[in-house]
From TrEMBL:
Sequence ranges assigned to domain Protein SirB1 N-terminal in this UniProt record: 39-183
UniProt similarity note: Belongs to the UPF0162 family.
Protein name as annotated: UPF0162 protein
Pfam families for this protein: TPR_9, Transglut_core2
Origin superkingdom: Bacteria
Length: 268
């Protein structure tokens, strides 16, 4: 089974094998990645954390779990410019550094194994966690509690004070949504690190994992442009044109389409 197929199969299991799906994404980029090896490393980590958790009801152990992960060195990757290894779960397990979503996926897997209730929250710009029914969110990078005031501050830091916190920002994330967001993160990281072919792998996975946005078509179209695949670029630009309601963007897309050749022998 190819890594992409294995990833999708993990998402169809009950319960969903979220971390293993993430490891198969890493295996798409590096053939030497063996998900079973990382899962064995996780088993050791699980035992270490389980031995250190306080004697509390399971519903109160999510924050101690995150704090224990932080104490063991699992922290947000602050390297600039950020590299793809911050979102590749095999590297996150090795380096103990990662993006918030990558750390959240690790925490969710450990919580599931330890029967600790915990869910992902698709907060914009900084993925968060929540104990179902709680009145606060949890930062996967250390376990800090975030109430609505802190969430508004986080949103303002990410996007500016003009963005208003809404209920949509606090929705639970499905496994498919998490894998799609991870793929978008990797797509951007590979683009930022000048690896267009790797970014294209991520861009195609984004399309396969769920509903897509205009920005997803535009991102892949730009990759096809840089890889000299005008017909594939045209396909994505036409779909972006169908989806967008922005009149300025529609004009720009139409102009860009007008500059593409009607046919091409380029292979992709």
């Amino acid at each position: 089974m190819k890594p992409r197929q294995a990833c999708l199969a993990c998402l169809e299991r009950e319960p969903v094998a979220l971390l293993e799906a993430s490891l198969w994404i890493a295996a798409e980029h590096e053939r030497s990645v063996v998900p079973a090896d990382s899962l064995a490393r996780l088993q050791d980590l699980q035992r270490e954390i389980n031995a250190s958790l306080p004697m509390l009801p399971l519903c109160e152990l999510a924050q101690p779990l995150l704090r224990q992960l932080n104490a063991l060195g699992f922290q947000q990757d602050e390297y600039h410019p950020l590299r793809p290894q911050a979102a590749l779960l095999d590297k996150v397990l090795q380096r103990r550094r990662g993006q918030p979503l990558a750390l959240a996926i690790l925490a969710l897997e450990l919580a599931r194994r330890l029967s600790i209730p915990l869910e992902g929250v698709n907060f914009p710009g900084h993925f968060l966690l929540r104990v179902p029914g709680a009145d606060h969110l949890l930062d996967p990078c250390g376990g800090r509690r975030l109430y609505p005031a802190e969430c508004r501050q986080l949103l303002a830091r990410q996007f500016g004070p003009q963005v208003t916190l809404t209920a949509e920002h606090m929705l639970a994330a499905s496994p498919l949504q998490m894998m799609q967001r991870l793929s978008r993160n990797l797509r951007q990281l590979h683009i930022s690190n000048d690896n267009d072919l790797a970014a294209l792998i991520d861009a195609e996975r984004v399309m396969q994992l769920g509903p897509v946005q205009v920005s997803d078509y535009l991102a892949r179209a730009t990759l096809y442009q840089r890889l000299d695949c005008p017909q594939a670029e045209r396909y994505d630009l036409e779909h972006a044109l169908l989806l967008t309601d922005d009149p300025v963007q529609r004009v720009k897309l139409s102009e860009r389409l007008g500059h593409l050749p009607a046919s091409s022998q380029s292979l992709h």
